Amino acid sequence: MTISRRQFIKGSLSVAAAAGLPFSLNRPALAALVERKDRPWEDGYRNLFKGERKVRTINMPNCTGSCAWNVIVKDGIVLRVEQPLDYPDDEYNPRGCMKGATYHRRVYSPNRVKFPMKRIGPRGAGQWQRISWDEALDFIASEIKRIAAKYGQNTIWVYPPVPATGIVKQGAGFRFASVNGFGIGTFYNWYGDLPLAHPITWNVQTEEHEFKDLLNTKYAIIWGSDMLQTRMPDAHFFTDIRAKGVKLVYIAPYFDPTASAVDEWVRVRPGTDGALALGMCHVVVKRGLTDDNHLLKTTSGPLLVRNDNQKYLKATDVLADGDAKAFMIWDKAAGKAMPDTYFSDKPALTGTFDVTLKDGKKVGCSTAHTLLLKKLEDYDPKTVSEITGVPADVIERIAVEYASAKPASIWAGTGINHWYHGDLIGRATIELACLTGNVGVNGGGVSPWAGQYLMRLNPTDYFFPKKEGGKPDDRYRAVPLDTAYVVNGPTETMANKDKLWRQIRCIWAAGGNLLGEASDQSNLTRKVLPQIELIVSPEIEMSTTAQLADIVLPVVSWFELPYDIATTPSHPYIQLAEGSIEPMFEAKTDIEIYYEMCKRLGTGDIFKFNRPEPAIELLLETGGPQVKGITFERLKKERCIKVNLPSSPYASFTEEIQGKKKFKTASGRQELYKDEDRFIQYGEQLPVHKEPHVATPYGPSKVWSEAKKERNPLYEKYPMVYHARHTRWSVHSSWRTTEEVLKLDDIGQPLLELNPVDAAKRGIVAGDWATAYNEHGFVKAKVKLRESVPPGAVLIYFGWQRDQIREGHWNALTHNDINPIHEIYFIPNVWGPVSGHFDKLCEVKKS
Ligand code: SF4
Fold first, then answer.
1. Residue nearest to atom 6 of ligand 1 (CA)
2. 190-to-451, 479, 700, 817 alpha-carbon distances in Å
3. What is the pLDDT of residue 630?
4. Listed GO molecular functions (predicted)?
5. Which residue from 739, 192, 141, 811 is spatially nearest to 448, judged by alpha carbons?
6. CA distance 518 to 815
7. How far apart are alpha carbons 197 and 414 in whole angstroms?
């Protein structure tokens, strides 16, 4: 039986009357409601949502969120976005932040690049001529041919963004560079996101636990990462564990939003985190809290090191027919040096032994763990307190708490990577995890989550296509040139200098707002750009890079893309991005632009793709075990699929720690001890604390016993540490010009944040204009005073576009001194110079 609305109201009235219920509406009003037949306003309301279409897609900035959004479209216009709440693991629902919620404002931003444009005035003067796509592409092709003929094909240099933020779109840049034999830059180490300690210790790019694994931890330390601001969709995991009674400690110099949400905040002197970690290691050893089984079976601890040259003893040193790759241990039962077998419990973990070499000579050898214990003697809590400013009793207490609460985890961010000696700081935190057996277990680990570098599939066939008729691994390859060298190279210590170094002449800034976000901004603009004969900037908005380019090409937003796929280290899913509206203005997809360029350069048949669909199929078919069984068709249906991983929630190295397989290092073990010549030359075979290379009042880059006796002359001139940091209001420079977000960020312009004590010394009050400057450059901005900034530091939340800054640039004060340890090998984005842009000093004056 169906009841009309009118009957229902009538019925309700009679029931209510019979029950003697009071009414707020009087009889004439009710009669009007019941009798009135034309009710157009109701249709108006009903039709509000009529004709709406919903498309589930993902946000793809480099924030590691990789959050899904339902895009609501009507009449070809995006009305709003909503969180779909459809992640298979409930803990990841909902995800998103105000930036994702306002992405459609960027789609319709007045700042959009609408059509191809050619510079007609001096670079950066803002004088443009609108041209057609054919004119733009023909001009670029002819310039590329000219430059390549004059200087070499590899002087055309493509700067790629982080590929997991749209593997088809971003990967097309790699494919473009490869098929044409162009140069290609690096991003992950250049941003300062690469935790070099990971390849050093484990020979992997980076390893981290997914966020959900936090729920397994019994004790957590956030180390140098403002998680609450920068990992918005996953920050709840930290508060969730606190609700479960798990203690959460935060180690950082700033009292930032994360500091306000933990059980204990430990303020450390900027750049001395490595000393603090080693101080904690010292306490763990002294208190007998080490996990010797973990150290013996899985770390370099039992491997023998020759006392005469600090190199690992190899089987070829001892045995005539020894295996050159075999490392040696001291077999306790046999009483002699023997080749190492992974996961064995036969070796001695500590001790020094005389070993007879194959030529009959005897050499003293110590286990690497013995050397590590000796090194740790330098890091007693009193000394470490002197270095770091952390009270000795706090060092003792948090070390004992961490070591006693297994599993315990460390969540380390870019705050400890962005230093010249960031590799040493990272190695010290890993040493702490190894000593306590917290590697390879759920709830443990050292997880950096810096940058959306992790593709969770092998993209080789898409990035570097096979040559037809060639051998199986005969591929088209780009010629890498680390971005650090483009800006600040070459160096004498650069790996493969003769083969790799060249002055580049054309920049294809494929994304990442290179000219706005690059540290070493002063060198980049003064030294590099004058030598560049062509800058091409495909962009959705007039970013700093677009403003400084010669040709700007309009690119579609994520909502105009046909399809793409994306992954992140934060959660274990591969997701489909699907556009919901037609390309705006004259915008094209990146893959289409590259294809059109390749056609003009004679490589169109090799590049092959001008649509994303076949590229996605190729990536999934050839992507390897993590995406086995995941097809494009499945993705179109399910949208979000968990990749195949050895553990759930994913934790790093679980199989290695169970002895199921070895680590990927030369020794097959976690290499806390390193014996490459340069590690020995710099005294960094084991993690040590070295003072910051620049940002210290003491002897720069020296160990404490030497550093404390010296004064840094630069510090006398520039006594403040300068940090440009991530904010919640942007992902790097993305959203920096979005009005809705900008309104929420203080006064919507760059601010220099100072401690009131420092401001008073300089006669500065809140709201004054001031200039932070050093020997590299300056930035002028209004001043905000905060106790949360430690005395002796200047903070600026970054990402501002060139035309939003009063004078100078927030990255003009940074400079990339290249650490020779970072140059021992060159594996693009895996082992290369890591930007140390936190390691900088400045002075501030009222202006
Ligand atoms: S900006 Fe990052 S965290 Fe925010 S919604 Fe987008 S992907 Fe998620």
1. 100
2. 11, 17, 22, 12
3. 98
4. iron-sulfur cluster binding; metal ion binding; molybdopterin cofactor binding; oxidoreductase activity
5. 192
6. 10
7. 12
DSSP 177: H
Top mutation candidate among 232, 736, 744 for ligand 1, by most atoms within 8 Å of CB: 232
Separation of CA 540 and ligand 1 centre (Å): 18
Which has the closest alpha carbon to 670: 216, 201, 215, 323? Answer: 201
Residue count of the chain: 847
Q: How far is C-alpha 496 from the geometric centre of its chain's CA atoms?
A: 26
User: What does the pLDDT look like over 311-325, one tens digit per residue?
Assistant: 999 999 999 999 999
Nearest protein CA to atom 2 of ligand 1, as residue? 65
Q: State the distance from the centre of ligand 1 to the C-alpha of 103, rounded, in angstroms.
A: 9
Q: How many Å lie between the centroid of ligand 1 and the Cα of residue 822? A: 31
Candidate of 57, 97, 105 to mutate for ligand 1, largest count of ligand atoms within 8 Å of Cβ: 97
Please give the helix or strand (H or E) that residue 248 lies within, else none.
Answer: strand 247-251
- The bridge status of strand 793-797 relative to strand 751-754 is antiparallel
The full set of domain ranges for the chain reads 5-37, 117-181+458-551+584-623, 718-846
Strands (DSSP E) contained in 90-149 are 117-119, 128-130
Strand partners, 640: 575
User: Ligand 1 centre and the CA of 66: distance in Å?
Assistant: 6
What crossing angle do the helices spanning 273-286 and 422-435 adopt, rounded to 10°?
Answer: 20
Strand segments, DSSP code E, in 540-637 are: 551-554, 563-566, 573-578
So what's the pLDDT on residue 25?
A: 54
**Confidence label for 2 from pLDDT (cuts 50, 70 and 90):** very low
Distance CA(818)–CA(834), nearest Å, equals 8
Residues at CB less than 6 angstroms from ligand 1: 59, 61, 63, 65-67, 95-97, 99-100, 232-233, 731
How many CA atoms does the CB half-sphere of 666 hold within 13 Å?
A: 15
pLDDT attached to residue 413: 81
Give the residues across from 552 on adjacent strands: 117, 537
**C-alpha dihedral sign at 348, 349, 350, 354:** positive
pLDDT confidence bin for 7, thresholds 50/70/90: low
What fold does the segment set 117-181+458-551+584-623 form as a domain? Rossmann fold (3.40.50)
pLDDT greater than 90 at residue 804 = yes
pLDDT at 33: 66
Average pLDDT, stretch 572-581?
98
The CA-to-CA distance between both ends of the chain, in Å, stands at 79
Q: How far is the CA of 450 from the centre of ligand 1 (A)?
A: 14
Choices 3.40.50.2300, 2.60.120.330, 3.40.50.300, 2.40.40.20: CATH for 718-846: 2.40.40.20
For the chain, the average pLDDT equals 94
Average pLDDT over every residue of 76-95 = 96
pLDDT by residue (tens digit) across 537-555? 999 999 999 999 999 999 9
Mean pLDDT for the stretch of residues 54-79: 96
Q: What is the DSSP letter of 525?
A: I
* 97 Cα–ligand 1 center, Å: 5
Is the confidence at residue 797, as pLDDT, over 90?
yes
| Residue-level pLDDT at 16 | 44
Backbone angles phi, psi at 79, to 5 degrees: -90, -45
Sheet containing 77-82, strands listed edge to edge, beginning at the edge strand earlier in sequence: 53-58, 68-74, 77-82
Q: Report how far Cα 685 is from the mean position of its chain's Cα atoms.
A: 26
Helices (H) and strands (E) counted in the chain, each on its own, are 33, 31
pLDDT tens per residue across span 718-769 = 999 999 999 999 999 999 999 999 999 999 999 999 999 999 999 999 999 9
Contact in structure between 552 and 613 (CB atoms under 8 Å): no
Single out the residue of 161, 210, 206, 178 nearest to residue 830, CA to CA. 206
Written as six digits, the tokens of 378 are 């330098």
Residue whose structure tokens are 């204009």: 769
426: three-class secondary structure by DSSP: helix
